Hints:
This is Flagellar protein. The protein is mainly alpha-helical. Helix content is 46%, strand content 9%. Strand 3 and strand 4 form a beta hairpin. The mean pLDDT is 87.
Amino acid sequence: MPELSNCPKCDRLFVKSLRTVCEGCHHEVEMMFEKVYMFIRKRENRTAAMHEVTEATGVEETQITQFIREGRLHLAQFPNLAYACEKCGSYIREGRICSSCKGELRSGLDRSAQESAFQKRKEARQNRSATYHSIRVDKKE
């Protein structure tokens, strides 16, 4: 259902339905996309890196990255085009973070799961009632 909202780019009031920005900003984004797309479609520019595309078109790297994430630019056609990992900043071609950062996150999650399992076992041991055994010794007289 449409709702009244402020544009995140220009702060103008607009009816938010299918688009997340106002009509003026949407038109501006489309013009940026056309500029980037026309630049990298040229045969001599297909091997351009992200900084070269940014310098040639004047479109910010974050906006080009957004086009890639939206699926509007397919990196399979452009071998040198990559964007920064959100965690470490190294250049990647898919996803949000690089493989080494994924590995760090996985190991951190695994470590956390192991610690949580250890704590549960420890609490379970503490909650058990203590059992005492005595040895019966028969005295011979």
